[in-house]
Structure formats: structure tokens, C-alpha cells
């Protein structure tokens, strides 16, 4: 499902970018911005915002369409309301889209969104309206997954689609990834050093074990040779050996005297 959504996003971005490249007048481009920001399945706008054709809106009466597109790429409903005096009124579909994008922005910083904060950010007056919006417009559309906790009055986010990154956010991400890469390289070197040390110790232990076994084998051979050389003579010269047995055999025996 996620792959299908990403593929659909890519197709829509390509579609609107191709249309922008084919347009030459500011009114047409402004109408394209309105269509893109109202589309129910499009949630990424930075590529369209950066398209060279959109620069034709600058300096015209439709220049505010660029600011609207920028808000849909990087801003929130709260941002729009703070600038609404200088921006065109939004259509209902645009308002819904900007609310959805606002939820994604909030989910970037925390996965536990209090109802009170959501109602304020989304300009919603009651909990029922908020929960209906989260279920019907966010979870059913696939941009977020989570659980509504009525007891704690919060929305627990389990998944949220990513938004377009500003230049500052992109630089911060690059810095974070660079730091992670340096840390990973350092850990990798430490692991490699430990593996080398373990291999060295293994070889040393094998060498010591071989030396010990060789010494034991030499000792066994030495003892066996000593026994082979001395064992027979020792046996003959020991008390009770063959020589003593022969002497006992030829010595005359004394008769016992009868008792009186």
C-alpha cells in the first residue's frame, strides 16, 4: 500500500510538472496551482514549487499563487491564517488539504498529539469533529496511522507520511546523517580491531596449546623410554623378585620339632 501511494505521488508530480512546462501565461499557471493544491491524492509540492515555469507568476497579479504553493509545500493552516490578508481565499478542498498537511507537520516532532493542540492547529471546535477528520481525512487516506485515545484525549501516531523538506531541514538531515555515518565508521573500526585482536589471541592460544601438547607427548615418550630401559633390571633386583625366589627355593627347610 505504501509503495502504491508513493508511486501515485510520483505520477501526480510528474503530471503537474509536465503541465506547468507546457503553460506560458500567468493565469494558466495560477489555475494549475489551484488544481494541484486541491487534488485529494497529492501531498508533495516542492518539486512543482521549484519548477522554472512557475517563475512566470512573479511580478504579476497572480504572484500570491506562488506563496500559496509554498505554504502547501512547507507550511500549515496556522501559517496561512497568519498571512490570510495577503493571500487568496482557499477553496474547501484546499482547506482540507492544508489541515491534512498540518497533521503531518505535527507528527514530525511527536507521536502523541493532544486533542487540544490539534483542535487549535486545525481550527476545529469540538472533539467529535476532530476525530471524524482524523479518521475520514487522515487515516482513511493513508497519510497517517494511529489510535484515538479518548480517555487521554490524544491521537497516538504510529505512522505518518513525510512532508517536503525545507532547505534548513535538508541541511539538518544531512548533518544528522553525516554524524551517524561518522559514528558508524568509528564503531566499525572498533569492531574490526576487536576481531583482529580475537584472531590474534586465538592463534596465540592455539600455539600455546600445541606447545603444551608437544611437551606432554615428549614427557610420555621419556617416561616410556625410561621404563623400557630400567624396568626389567629393577624388577629383578627388587626384594621378592626372581633372585629371592630362587634362594628361597633351594634353602633347606627346617622341620618342626614335635611338641612334648
Automatic annotation (TrEMBL):
GO terms for cellular component: COP9 signalosome. Belongs to the CSN7/EIF3M family. CSN7 subfamily. Residues 1-162 form the PCI domain. It comes from the Eukaryota. Pfam families: PCI. GO terms for biological process: COP9 signalosome assembly; protein deneddylation. It comes from Eragrostis curvula (weeping love grass). The lineage of its organism: Eukaryota, Viridiplantae, Streptophyta, Embryophyta, Tracheophyta. Keywords: Signalosome. This is PCI domain-containing protein.
